[in-house]
Design brief:
alpha/beta; 10 helices; 21% strand
Length: 351
Amino acid sequence: MGPARDVAVVAFAQTDHRRRTDELSEVEMLMPVLHEVLDRTGLKTSDIGFTCSGSSDYLAGRAFSFTMALDGVGAWPPIAESHVEMDGAWALYEAWVKILTGEADTALVYSYGKSSPGEVRDVLTRQLDPYYLAPLWPDSVALAALQAQALIDAGDTDEPALAAIAARSRDSATANPHAQVRGSRPQGDYLVRPLRTGDCPPIGDGAAAVILAAGDTVRGLCARPAWIRGMDHRIEAHGLGVRDLTDSPSARLAAERAGAFERPVDTAELHAPFSSQEVVLRKALRLDDSVRVNPSGGALAANPVMAAGLIRIGEAAAAIHRGESDRALAHATSGPCLQQNLVAVLEGEPS
């Protein structure tokens, strides 16, 4: 879907991602992030044309949990608001479409997730087909291990290569003050063979927020905006048995529709919670060694469920804001084994 208006990411903020935030509610975790993005742009809540959030009631353990998070936005003035039961990257997509249609000139997008109160591996089984697969209770790590073993059997990777991906990601996270896990560490024991602890994402709590703006509104808000040149999302078949787990046609199609293959990118922020999934995404998105992949550390360094995908878009935009990237690809996923995939292409103006 090509943009009819020029829309840019003008601000991004995230929490310091931690294993537990028992002392904070979702609202208390979220409020500093919302204040930070508004402060960076000089905008007030009354200046925002549309607000959209992403979270999961299953993760929170109560129905309509997102309504409580709205307390962090403020009770006054009244706002135009929407919510998606998805990662915040899909909330950003909705806000982007809202701006493209001319219904708003600015948008606040935020997402959050607290995985610490429960067993996130079990919670994520609720994403599965409820008739054939979910009753077997295969958790998220077991399903990722099936994908990793399929890649190894196909000759696309091996365990040392997966360990190298994990080590590189967490070494990159050393420079990221928000990352939960930093620096190289032993791969650890097998969780589900062939995946070791180091191949899997940390469990933790976190939140993120982004501000979008259109056209001339952008100029006074950000010195070097990250213009969204294209964005698209696609989905695989629900049944894992009818998919080739070594490939991601939906990610490839989303990238094609977003314009990612029109010119090379220099940076890619991939939402690959497991080291094996980076292998799949690099192939599907045609990323060679010239592309910096996950300079922030990616989801292997911090993976707040329902916010990690939005963070990938935010990190790609922030690299453009800092002048470290000119054309970046951001990817978000949801569901088992890269079932749903969103790709955004962002560009900065010449210095």
